[in-house]
Amino acid sequence: MSLAPASANQQNSGCPDGVEPLVRLLYSEEVRSDFWSKSLSRYSHLFEAAIYRQLLDVAKEQAQYEASRKGYVVVDIDIFSGTQWGTDGIQSIRCQVVDPDEVKVNLVILSGGKNRQFEHPVVVFLERDRLESFRWKVVDLGAYEDASLERGYHYLLSETLDDWLKRAGKSH
Q1: What does DSSP assign to residue 33?
Q2: At what angle do helices 49-68 and 157-170 cross, to 10 degrees?
Q3: How many angstroms separate the CA atoms of 112 and 62, rounded?
């Protein structure tokens, strides 16, 4: 047990230093709006290597579909919420420190636009990247928690990206 005083950040949200700013940036309008049409390399520092590769592969497939004008779509939901409604912002953040190098960030996000706001729980899974000065990186996002499921969530970004890539590969 550490006797070092907790930072103000840890006292308020339970988040280790650096976690809350990373999550707020991830859910900022700058990152979320038109996510797939931007150069994803601008956001490589937010994601762990494997999920970043998946994002790049999906972005490439999406661009090919748009260029071919086949009418198909690879990306059919908002990746930040796992919903069709999109993400309008964060209402609350609470961290659950799993171990010194792993944190589950429990968010309540707002979805639905200006007329109908829904509160929606989302979990951002973060790990420290030992190859990059121990920076926190997103390893996955989850929504619709369900303990009866093998991985515990109806929506996991990593699984959704895999599904999109499989579907895109079948339709070529």
Answers
A1: T
A2: 40
A3: 24
pLDDT value of residue 69: 66
Q: Which CATH class is domain 13-170?
A: alpha beta
pLDDT tens profile 99-153:
999 999 999 999 887 788 888 899 999 999 887 788 999 999 999 877 777 778 8
For residue 13 the two structure tokens come to 């949200």
Give the Cα separation of 58 and 40 in Å (integer). 11
Alpha-carbon 168 to chain mean position: 21
* Pick from 101, 115, 113, 122: nearest CA to 26: 122
Q: Supply 62's token pair.
A: 């999406």
pTM of the predicted protein model = 0.84
Would strands 135-145 and 102-111 be described as parallel, antiparallel, or unpaired?
Answer: unpaired
Q: Which has the closest alpha carbon to 138: 27, 33, 12?
A: 27
126 phi-psi bin (left φ>0, alpha ψ -120 to 50, beta other): beta
116 vs 163: which has the higher pLDDT: 163
H or E element at residue 32: helix 29-32
Determine the Cα–Cα distance for residues 161 and 138; give it in Å rounded to an integer. 14
